[in-house]
Amino acid sequence: MRSIAVVGASLAGLRAVETLREEGFTGRISLIGDEPHEPYDRPPLSKQILTGQVPTANLALSKDGLSSLDLDLHLGRRAVGLDLRQRTVELDRGSEVGFDALLIATGARARRVRGVEDLDGVHVLRTLDDALAVRAAFGSKPKVVVLGAGFIGLEVAASARALGLEVTVIEATPQPLSHAIGPTMGGACVALHRDHGTRFELGKPVDAIEGHGSVERVRLADGTAIDADLVVMGIGASPATDWLEGSGLTLGNGVVCDATCATSAPGIYAAGDVAEWHNPVFDRPMRVEHWTNATQQGMAAARAMLAGPGRAAPFSSVPYFWSDQFSARIQFAGVARDATEVRITGGSVEERRFVAIYRHGARVVAALGFDSPRMLMKYRALIMRGASWDDALALGAAA
Ligand SMILES: Cc1cc2nc3c(=O)[nH]c(=O)nc-3n(C[C@H](O)[C@H](O)[C@H](O)COP(=O)(O)OP(=O)(O)OC[C@H]3O[C@@H](n4cnc5c(N)ncnc54)[C@H](O)[C@@H]3O)c2cc1C
To answer: Whose alpha carbon is nearest atom 4 of ligand 1?
Structure first.
């Protein structure tokens, strides 16, 4: 193997490239990314970048600078096609990059409400440029409406409230964050926000985003109109697989991979937000949009690529994410989707400091912590070991 191409110059792609070099790969590495920036960290975009607490210069992801990695770098270039037979990635403006092995790390793209492309003041938040545009808009003290009470939407709301802006969060489902942390615990996040003056319209789908030239209001399906000078859409993200359509690679909810991050085509791997891989810990396919997963899976995919088929280790992981809202650190480990019971094992929602664990059958499958990092990490380790619900309760009782 003499040449490796990595498409997606962000967290998963960069960590993969660093790992390839650390593991001694001396061949050509082509890193292709459609953003003009060198790889940067996204979590601060909805937090300290919006509030102005961190300068953009601090976002660089590369530990020692990209030049130390000796890359064939293609920034500001978009991959538009993949030829499995020729083993080439086709770039916009006509050129091609050949490879012996390929890592797909194109992440996810923010979903948008259609039909508002011509209206100023309507934003998404996925990239540095998105964040700088929202921050600039905050400067004119707008009335802010956030569409979607997911984690990114709630972080934008918290940042706007921290700056003293009037904020309304609109969420179509009555119980926000149900899919991520379960319906009961979603209420704890809403309570935290209400403490800080965020308004909510829950269980109310949006009918229209209205305005002349610029956004003026958001109209809900029940007819309510909410004044808005700035709308941020936090309605989720979709895996960036458009450029792979028709390539022959198996696509599902992302690029479909086995447990070693290998795709349906030999020598082609995927990692990060774009990858739907078979996670041995839960014995099922999953696609995870979290920072820690992108980091660890990027590294694992690079090692799998170097090891080759039959020798690569599976990537086993308990999904983990954190979210900073106001002064609270919210952390979640595991999978809440199939939980049949949720129990608080320490603290309380009223104190805004607690740990809750989630059960499926006889197993503990997830844990949520509000300002409880030590316990959360202990539970994550238990979930990784496939521990029982009773073991998790005992850990809580002993704390
Ligand atoms: C605002 C925000 C806040 C977040 N906060 C948290 C947090 O607090 N905690 C947490 O756990 N996670 C958080 N995350 C999630 C975390 O940042 C992501 O999971 C992580 O960035 C995924 O890394 P990735 O490399 O897989 O994909 P991405 O970071 O999405 O990078 C993919 C890159 O590929 C590029 N690309 C896409 N298509 C092409 C193409 N065809 N050709 C070339 N390049 C292409 C994209 O433009 C992008 O630069 C946050 C994400 C966002 C957006």
So the answer is: 43
Mean pLDDT of the chain: 96
Answer whether residue 220 shows pLDDT above 90. Answer: yes
In this prediction the pTM is 0.97
**Separation of CA 45 and ligand 1 centre (Å):** 11
Closest approach atom of ligand 1 to CA 272: 26
- Cα 374 from Cα 133, distance rounded (Å): 36
- Cα angle: 342, vertex 355, 330; to 5 degrees: 110
When pLDDT is averaged across residues 328-335 and rounded to a whole number, the result is 95
- Amino acid identity for residue 118 in this structure: D
Q: Residue 221 has what pLDDT?
A: 94
Kindly give the distance from the C-alpha atom of residue 254 to the centroid of ligand 1, in angstroms, as a whole number. 14
Ligand 1 centroid to 346 CA: how many Å? 33
Q: In the chain, helix, strand, coil percent, each to 5?
A: 30, 35, 40
Residues lining ligand 1, Cβ inside 6 A:
7-13, 32-35, 42-43, 45-46, 78-79, 105-108, 125-126, 152, 240, 243, 272-273, 289-292, 294, 321-323
Q: How far is the CA of 275 from the centre of ligand 1 (A)?
A: 12
